[in-house]
Amino acid sequence: MAMPLPVVDGPNTDEARRAVNVLNRLADELRRRETETTRRLDYYKGKHKLCYASPEFRDYFADRFKGFSDNWTAPVAAAPAERMNVLGIRLPGEQETDADLAEAWRFADCERGSSEAFVVMLAAARAYCLVWGTEDDEPRVTWERPDQAIVAYDSDTGERIAALKLWSDDTREYATLYEKLFVWKFARPRYARNGYSVSGLIVPAGSDVVRSAGPEGWQPRQGPNDDTWPIPNPMKRVPMVELRNQTLLDDDPLSDIAGVMAMQDAINLTWAYLMNALDFASLPQRVVMGADVPKMPILDENGQKVGERPLELDTLINERILWLTGDASIGSWPAADLSAYSNVIERAIEHISAQTRTPPHYLIGKVANLSAEALTAAETGLVAKTGERITYCNSPIREIHSLMASAMNDEEKAKACRRSVVMWADPQFRAIGQKVDALMKMKSMGFPLRWIAEQYGLEPPEVDRVMAMVEEQAEMDPVNQMLNGGAQPPRALRAAPGDDPFAVESEPDA
Prior knowledge:
InterPro entries: Portal_protein_SPP1_Gp6-like (IPR021145). It comes from Nonomuraea phyllanthi. This is Phage portal protein. The chain is of the alpha+beta class. It is built from 17 helices and 15 strands. α3 crosses α5, α11 runs antiparallel to α12 (411-417) and α13 packs antiparallel against α14 (449-456). The longest helix has 31 residues, at 14-44. The termini are far apart. Mean pLDDT is 80; it is low at 192-216.
């Protein structure tokens, strides 16, 4: 028996206040995660803040190297993600992927969306997918960032009980809370910080975020196509799915680049030192000997000289001038060994490769006549790592397809999707000769042609097209036509014993 919906007459009912409490709890947790999530995504995009080994180096060269970053976090996260390609989903008892769900997956642009979500999941540890239906019973699929979406779970069963999407524009903050029975939409004036005015409310500079349960609090928001508030959830399930990276039996997934960021800071710092050394080594050094340190005049408010002060040593260093007083002399001034810097950078990159199971040729970019077997062996760690990440994504992808089937009003298929098999492209890249040779041997062992086409890497629609071509070609084969009772075989095959098979038959009379 279906559970009756709670009665919600307005924003002041107990049910509405309960929804606001859930919203605020999820929003607090989302903001707690926001700092680290933003930092990880910034590192992936190459937005690194340069770290300094000493205050002196920071004071002299902070502006010179502002905005510089060498980015090794991007290939570490992108290498597995580029090998994670969903081909479709095979329902229990079926031999092929479901054509309707595969078409809906392409129609919703999930090929691109899932690819971006896998990168975000590997870099930031989380990504989200939201599924809803259209008026035409087509699934609408959007892939959400981990700094704008969050899912809550039942602590006993692990089942999704609520999900929140939170975003803002210049003046307002918007929230949509998804539960099993209702979808709650809220809005409020954006938080005020540092003297910024919101709806006439002035906040002193440096104060904390202002929250108010009164006029500045959450208010019901109704979209142009919404007939009621809140909206009844026709799926009777939370329509947002979380894609989580590896966890340690807890609710804190790991980021693939979390351990790389500290090494990335060290590499960037070494690059800054190297370029600084190159800058000084590329220009002649000027030495003043046997003279007193120059002095700067001190002027009063009328411009009259009232005294002198020695020129600061920092100014001389910045001007690349070494000032020696008295009878000092220079015996030798050897150039700095710049290879020490590059050696440190190379060793750091090698450490990143080993720690993250990223092939060295992905990072260093040097391939010296390696055979196909050697390249395959070098990518063994990456292939195994990608297989692990695929394992983490199997359950969310099944749930996404189940929600898509619910949006298409096919509850039987939605239930079957939870027990289905997700079909992925082969994460191992091989030379074309290697792949064809292996597939030919499997064909000789009796593997069917459709399976061979799938293992080759063709997507399900292409597999169907190839099989149709094979059937068409077989129908055009004269031997097959003869065996199927079609065209007559040649006369040489129809000649009776003792007859001349090459005799020309006379044409019948008109």
